[in-house]
UniProtKB/TrEMBL annotation:
Organism: Naumovozyma castellii (Yeast)
Name the record gives this protein: Biogenesis of lysosome-related organelles complex 1 subunit BLS1
GO cellular component, one term: BLOC-1 complex
GO BP: endosome organization; regulation of protein localization
Length: 109
């Protein structure tokens, strides 16, 4: 049994340290080369394609909407400012009318 284990260990070391390519080592090198190609070339191309598609589907339409409706939003902001000024002027007029009416009542007494 001991002799068999020694023989197996010796055979294993010979296989591992062998300078002759085996089918397994050739396959492993091919897999590693494919992995590098996928990582270096195909993945970058896929990311670039995805980024372009994302930009076309999401970013560009939002820019179009912002440019199309941005002026309307600005006008609405101006409109809100104008409405606040009109509201302020109406309150001043209402207060003035109330003061005039109160003064007229006190003068009539």
């Amino acid at each position: 049994m001991y002799n068999r284990n020694v023989d197996l260990e010796h055979a294993f070391k010979d296989i591992v340290n062998s300078s002759i390519d085996s089918e397994s080592s050739k396959t492993l090198r091919e897999i590693e080369a494919n992995s590098r190609y996928i990582s270096d070339v195909q993945l970058k191309s896929l990311l670039k394609l995805h980024d372009e598609k994302f930009k076309q589907k999401c970013v560009d339409p939002l820019h179009d909407i912002a440019s199309r409706y941005g002026k309307i939003v600005d006008k609405d902001g101006d409109l809100a400012t104008e409405a606040a000024l009109v509201d302020r002027d109406l309150r001043v007029i209402e207060t003035t009318i109330q003061l005039i009416q109160e003064r007229a009542k006190t003068d009539n007494k």
